[in-house]
Structure formats: C-alpha cells, structure tokens
Amino acid sequence: MFNFQKINIFTIKTELFSGLTSALALIPEVIAFSVVAGTSPLTAIYTSFFLCFITSLIGGRPGMISGAAGSVAIVVTALVVRYGVEYLFLAVILMGLIQIVIGALKLGKFIRLVPQPVVFGFLNGLAIVIFLSQFNQFYTDSGQLLSGMNMVFMISLVVIAMIIIYILPKFTKAVPSSLVAIMVVTLLSLVIAVPTKTIGDLSSIAGGLPQFHIPMVPVNLETISIVLPYSIVMALVGLIESLLTLEVVDEMTNTRGKPNRETYAQGIANTVCGFFSGMGGCAMIGQSIVNINSGGRHRLSGIISAITLLCIVLFASPVVNIIPMAALVGVMFMVSFNTFKWESFKLVHNVPNIDVVVMVVVTLVTVIFDNLALAVILGVVISALSFAWENSKRITAIVSYDKKHDVKYYEIQGPLFFGSTSSFKELFDYDGDPDSVVINFSQSRVMDHSAIDIINEVTAKYAKRGKKVLLSYLSRDSADLLDNAEGLIEVNYLDDPYYRIPHDELD
C-alpha cells in the first residue's frame, strides 16, 4: 500500500536531504499564507505537518509535498473575519469529508480532461506569481525598500544562492543544491555579520505538539449553512491544485500517479487537520518541484519533510530562525525559473491559435487574480467550447441510393452531440427521399441526450411522411430512448457497438 520498494542507502540519503530542503522552503510560504487566512503561524505549520505526512504516507503521488496553501487560505479569509477560527476548523473538517466523497465517486480521474495549454498556462502563471511574491523580502517591515549595503548584501546573497543551485548539479547530485545553497548563504551571513532579514523576523515558530480539538461552534443547521459553502469551494480549489500538481510531477518524473487515491488522501488529511486546529490546504506545486529537483521520488521524502517541520517547531526553531530570507528567495527564484515552460514560446507558431489564447488567458488570470482554480476552470471552459465548436462543424453524411430496392443510405461522419445537432438535421431530404431510409452511425458516435433528441426529431419527420427508417450501428442506450414514430423506426441491433472506457483501477 505504501510503496516503500527499491529503498537503498543512497536513496535514503537523497530522500532525507530533499525532505529537509522542501521543509525549509515550506516554512516562509505557509507563514505568509497564515497571515492571509487570519490564523497563527503555528496553525499553518501544524496544518502542513498533517497534510504532508498523511498524503505522503497514503496519497497517490510519491514525492509530492502538501501544506497550508495560499489558494485555500484566500477562500477562508472572509469566514475567519466574520465568524472566527472555530468556524474555520469546522469548515476544514467538512472540506475533508467532501474530498473523501469525491474520491469515493472516483471523480479524481477527470483531471485528465485538463488540456495541455491549460497546464502550460497554469505553470507559467504560477512561476510568475512565485517570482513576484519574493520581492516582498526586499522591503523592511515598515514597507520601505532596502537601501545601501543592506540591499547590496540581500541581492548578493540571493545571487550566490542561485549560482550554487545552478552550478552544483553539474558537478554532483549527491546533495540537493538547494540545501547546500541555504547552508552556504546562512554561513556567509553569520561570518560577514551584516544585518539581513531572517525567518525568525517573520514570526516565532516555537511550540509544542498539536492538540486534538473539537471546533467550539453551535451544532445546528444554521452553522452548517454558514460553513458548507466555504467548505465546498475549499474542497474543489484544493483538489484542482493538488491534481494539477500531480500531473506536473508525473510529467517531471515520467511516471503516473493515482488521482483518486490522492483525492482520498487529501480528504483524510484535511479532516484530521480540522480536528487539530488546522486551516486546511492541498498540494503545493512550488515545494513539490523543490522536492523533485532535489531528488525526492519516494514517499520517504514527504514524510521526512513533515517530520522536519514538527521537529523545527519542537526543538530547532532557534536554528531555523537564523536562516536568511535571501537564501530562500534564491531557492524560489530558481523554482520559478524551472517551473516556467519556456518551450511554450516555441509553440506559439506551431499550435492552433485557440491553444495560444488559452495559455495566455490562464497565465494572466493566475497572475492578476492569484487564483489558480479560477484560471484552470476558465481555461478548461474556453478549451471545451472551442472543441465543441470545431467538432460541431465536422458532422457530414456520405449519401448513396440503391435504385433496385429504392433505398436511400446516409452514412454519418463525425460526432453527434449538442453542438452538431443543427447541422445533422439539415443533412436529410425529408420530402425527396424514398419510402425507405437507412441512417448508418458506424462512423459516428451519439454523445449525449441532445443527440438522442435530434435523432428522435429526424425519425419523426420521416414518420410524419409515412417513410420507414432503419438506424444501424446505433448504441443500445441510444436506441432505448427512441420513443417516437412508433413502428416506422427499426434499429439494427446486430451491428450495435459497445463503447468501452478505461477501467477505474487505473486511477
């Protein structure tokens, strides 16, 4: 179940270092997201511990890192402001239960319907958001831009971290370059002793073990009606980002994760978080990329990352507090650089214009609104409408006439669905056709109820003129719905196709 196969000494070392690196990269982001959500930094770190540990242990994508994500934090801000954090904890529990139900219904597999241009736009937008978000560290707590030696020192440390991350893998991959960069920059800052922002300047992250806590809210329908809308949005936003992250990691590692299993794991993790005063979250693509680039490929790296977070809170917060933010800025700048799909520029002249539009729209919506879920949904809708429009123009018929038997044949070409029904209806010569007409669907597919309705309408038109229609190669589910024209419609069941779909076990 846990897939701990093929673990050796070298693998354990790599998983250990990659888990440490991703944990250090996780801390400043989740602290920032806790501010967005209106919760304490410890709440965000405890949330990240449970999410990362549980999803790494039982999830559908080894190597993926989950935590208190910004996309979920944005959703809960209004709930916390109006009703307080106790309502948030209940919302997180319901969020997890909704995700478990979605996993039970095996709906996670539908992430495969997200087109590649949407994924490219999502990654490009995310890379830009990650890049721009790091510039907050170039300002003082009072909002003033760093100046003089402080700015020079900050930029120098960032550049040093980036150079190490870029160059070190060319010589050795025994140790993650990101972790080396963090260690070197930290040592330099201590040796030179020039004041610079550190993790400790953000907030104190010292604390104890997370405590079990039942949300202190009234148990009634009014409470559920307040919380449920937030929970639904949180669940969907979290799953969209998690499953897209799964797709990205699949592409990076040339392997295949299990969306439905990941959906279950996210649901269980968020449910547990809610009972331990957590703010909810999902997979974090930036930290997942850090982990993968550092060599993390197994569940162990995520488990190490989670345990590291908890150990930092319990024992090592003074050590972590001295890490310069410049080191983490350098790491995230390189993550941004590696996340951006630079090949998308080459695709502009080699793909349909609508794909370019989708990439640009998804990128802009991600950057402008900082809402990954909205960007992905919008991209999918545009792609789906474009697909429907293009296929609606492809419905045609090869027409032939058997003079000996006085029969007209229509061999339908192309998919029959809601977008092509109008064109389909115009293919036939209702008044000029002979008394016997054969409509052959061997080169077509009846896709939806609108298609069934238009077949009913066409056969009814022939029936009204006293003409007999034979429908061949029509699926049984479609034939069962043909309820008009009485005995004047005949369906050739011998030629009936059986449409198969991939087995759910693949998910």
Automatic annotation (TrEMBL):
Coiled coil: none annotated. It is found in: Membrane. It comes from the Archaea. SUPFAM superfamilies: SpoIIaa-like. The keyword Lipid metabolism does not apply. GO terms for cellular component: membrane. PANTHER family: SULFATE TRANSPORTER YBAR-RELATED (PTHR43310). Residues 397-483 form the STAS domain. Pfam families: STAS (PF01740), Sulfate_transp (PF00916). This is Bicarbonate transporter BicA. Its main location: membrane. It is a multi-pass membrane protein. Keywords: Membrane, Transmembrane, Transmembrane helix. The chain crosses the membrane at residues 64-81, 87-105, 117-135, 147-168, 175-194, 226-246, 267-290, 302-335, 356-389. InterPro entries: Membrane-Transporter-like, SLC26A/SulP_dom, STAS_dom, STAS_dom_sf.
